[in-house]
Amino acid sequence: MKDRSLTGTLILASLEIAILLAGIYLIHFDDRLLYAPGTPKFWRVLLYFVMTVALLNVVTRLIKWLYQRQNYAKRRGAKNFIYGVENIRKLLIGGVVVFTVFSLIGIDFTALFTGLSLVAAAIAIVSKDFVNDLIVGIYYSFTDVFEVGDYVRFYTYRGRVTDIGLLKVKILNDNDDVVILPNGKIYTSEIINYTRRDVRLLSIDFEMDIKAITDVNELERELIESIRGFSDLIEPNSYLLKIVEVKKDYMEIKFQFRLRYMDRERQREVKRKVVREVFSYVSSHKPR
């Protein structure tokens, strides 16, 4: 979903309303053009198609305008609502396109649905993943589990959500790679939304040989001392060392601290420098 300028939006909305009014006039007040002898069915079907698409676009714009006017857009999940409305619009337009094509090639809808009912089970099996992704995509479009701009982790993928589509979710990872994941896969995975926590809290995960650790409290003090050069950026008494899991030969450790203020660029800079300091410390304390 791309942002448009206000002028462009007004022009498109005016054009769509003009198409609706012209179509209503032709259908109800001057049907000679549509039903005159020799007028092909193609033009009537095309008119109904264009009017339906225009109506869907106008209704979508009206819903989003009313939503923003009520200040709901300031709430968490507001971006998802906008994406949800857009996704439903795309889904309905897709359905309109299918019905239009069937109408143009002369397929009887009654016979079509009767035939589809005979192979519904086969279609359900073949399109199970597609339908599942579609339903989950609509669900995420109207919830605040995560929204565009949130920093999240799905499975082993970590990054910032850039798009919530009908079938896929796009995230931009720390290497600036765009990762595209099916909605169904995300729904069945563990979701960690780092944005929902204290945004000033930084966590550094690392592993350390058990033989190199004689005292956990001493390890915490030495780690704090190793990043003393950043003390002006870190809240005092916010340091915390957690033992996540103990393995046979090593420990999984999480070192956390809280910044004095929130600045994305400064946060990335501090984390990069602190990771290097922690890595240097861990490397220098390997057992011999």
Textual characterization of the structure:
The protein has 288 residues and is of the alpha+beta class. It folds into three domains: 6-141; 151-196, SH3 type barrels; 201-284, Alpha-Beta Plaits, CATH 3.30.70. It has helices at 6-28, 32-35, 41-69, 78-104, 109-118, 120-126, 128-141, 183-187, 216-226, 264-284; strands at 151-154, 157-164, 168-173, 178-182, 191-193, 201-209, 240-246, 250-258. A five-stranded antiparallel β-sheet has the order 4-3-2-1-5. A three-stranded antiparallel β-sheet has the order 6-8-7, covered by helices on one side. A hairpin with a 3-residue loop joins strand 7 (240-246) and strand 8. The longest helix has 29 residues, at 41-69. The protein is elongated. The mean pLDDT is 76. Residues 130-196 form the Mechanosensitive ion channel MscS domain.
Strand and helix map with partners:
Layout lengths: L5 H23 L3 H4 L5 H29 L8 H27 L4 H10 L1 H7 L1 H14 L9 E4 L2 E8 L3 E6 L4 E5 H5 L3 E3 L7 E9 L6 H11 L13 E7 L3 E9 L5 H21 L4
Antiparallel strand pairs: 1-2, 1-5, 2-3, 3-4, 6-8, 7-8
Helix pairs in contact: 1-3, 3-4, 4-7
Q: What labels would you give this structure?
A:
three-stranded antiparallel sheet, 3 domains, Alpha-Beta Plaits, 10 helices, five-stranded antiparallel sheet, 288 residues
* Approximate shape: elongated
Please, what is the average pLDDT?
A: 76
Number of DSSP strands? 8
Largest sheet: 5 strands, antiparallel
Q: Strand-and-helix sequence, N→C?
A: HHHHHHHEEEEHEEHEEH
**Rg to the nearest angstrom?**
28 Å
Structural class category:
alpha+beta
Strand order of the largest sheet: 4-3-2-1-5
- Write down the domain tally: 3
Helix content: 40-55%
Low-confidence stretches: none
Total of helices? 10
Portion in strands: 15-25%
End-to-end C-alpha gap:
56 Å
